[in-house]
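Mods, move this if it's the wrong board.
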Amino acid sequence: MGTPRDVVYSVHGARRGIAWLANAWALFARARLPWLYLLATYYVVMMVVDLVPVIGPLAVPVIKPVFAVGFLAAAWTQERGGTPRIADLFMGFRSNLRALLVVGAVFVAGITVAVLSTTLVDGGNLIEALTAPAPATHTEREAWANALNATLRDSRTQLAMLFAVLVALPTLAALWFAPGLVVFQDLPAFSALGHSLRAAAANWRPLLVYALAVFVLGGLLPGIALALVSLALPAPTSAVIAVALMLPYMFFFAATLHVSDYVSYRDVFHAGETLAPLTPGRPVA
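Not the wrong board. Structure tokens:
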């Protein structure tokens, strides 16, 4: 079992955030199909879990760190010369499962507090809009959409959402490296969360650059591309072209993000270390 003095981390410059994404893309590009199979399986499993009455929606965010370990294991396997496998996705269920579930519960609690904190700024308008009963008729759906749009455009609501992001930052930082610390360094949940928080705080510059790059590549560029397609082509054609372009792009981008979790963890906690290659014919531990 790891102890606090066993866990050391490196502090990197801002440009490392771009390198994490670039290196993650390089890993993904060398094994596109295995990673896409892994990602598709993950989405299917999470959708099935979400369909379980009552407990499904609550279980989904709790088990996210468990599956995060699966993506870490797949990247670790690839870095040692292997190929990501569907079996890797479920590695977290065989490695420190209790600690990973605690990490998931902390994530749920932290994000819940962040969402509830919006009431301090907008008096509960955002939560009221998000928790409104599902509209039954077309007229009700149109009214609901208009009301939600008005709420989201309100300056107090926008300020509330920004405040929620700030409140959520400690939770996100504590969760960033925690699954890797649990599975690769055998740390208990709260020790992993603490070390992740400290390492993330020390590496805030590359993490900020990473977050900005994700925003540009995952939000801004697709938005601009969709706008250009809709301006250049009539509505039915533009919708088909948009789906044909964006669906593969977003799958590739999502896979790269999952790989980048491993790349950033390795760079911060195991900088300069070289992994021993897998023995041919020997199963991955």
